[in-house]
Write a structure and sequence with these properties.
339 residues; alpha/beta; Rossmann fold; 3 domains; 16 helices; 12 strands; disordered N terminus
Amino acid sequence: MLSEELKYPSNFTPEVQNATAELYKGVEKVIPAVEWPFHAPLIHEINKLKKEKNIAILTHNYQTPEIFHCVSDIVGDSLKLAYEARDSKAETIIVCGVHFMAETAKILSPNKNVLIPDARAGCSLADSITAEDIRLLKQKYPGVPVVTYVNTSAEVKAETDVCCTSGNAKKVVEALGTDSVIFLPDEFLAKNVATQTNVKIISWKGRCEVHERFTAQEILAYKEQHKDIVVLAHPECSPEVVAVSDFAGSTAGMSNYVKDNQPQKVIMVTECSMSDNVAIENPDVEFVRPCNLCPHMKRISLKKIYDAIRFNQFQIEVDEDIINRARLSIDRMLEIGRS
């Protein structure tokens, strides 16, 4: 319960407090009571305005709980958000994630108004490779198919034979029926896939600046301190981290693991906010939280979402030719099978 002794902001009116009380009950384990009066007025306004303007808010797992649980219509990994954007009846889609996610939503929903609350929300992986880089790789390895992680720009997807997710990468690689593939751009994901298949993986040097910071020594220290802990790692982590973990999987895979197995104590080796969001949905599981924040995801805030709604900013524009070519690589992935 919120203490009456707290000095509330002036816009935390009784109307706002009553309207957001149920939402707070859902997040009170991860959002301190002292913070809620500062979130609630914006949450209240966003939820009113999005209904009036026929807007859907799609939110990635790495967003903070006040966004993820309190204003979002659809939550999930990047590809799920793109397909939900396509299927949504809303005229405007706000993607609370990073730029490549909003681009992917635009690729699959070219006739919708797609917004991102902060145009500077980028991604170290997406920034690590360009369309020209792929064209040069194709010249160096003629005839070798290009498999590209969905964490890439629209221009890169347009030069790609088939996309993949962290969950279905091995399946996509083996479905091509070739002895080797060019696998871009995540170096660690490529190395982790290479341990699972006989297909030769030609990789790139891109890395996620969140996941590359985790070390095997750090994870072993947690396991030593917490004897009964279950370690879940994202495959964007190094092979050494994956080797000392109990399970490696995509954001959706890790979330499902916790939901299905209900371990007594767990550590999720990924971006901080995901643990908070999964913890809310699994109250009987104790979460030990190593904390590497994504600075790009954290550019998104309630205030910026509110401004995106009010001012119709910032619009995602992708050239029609790029959309058509990029969509082919995503559609081919779905033909192979989505994980």
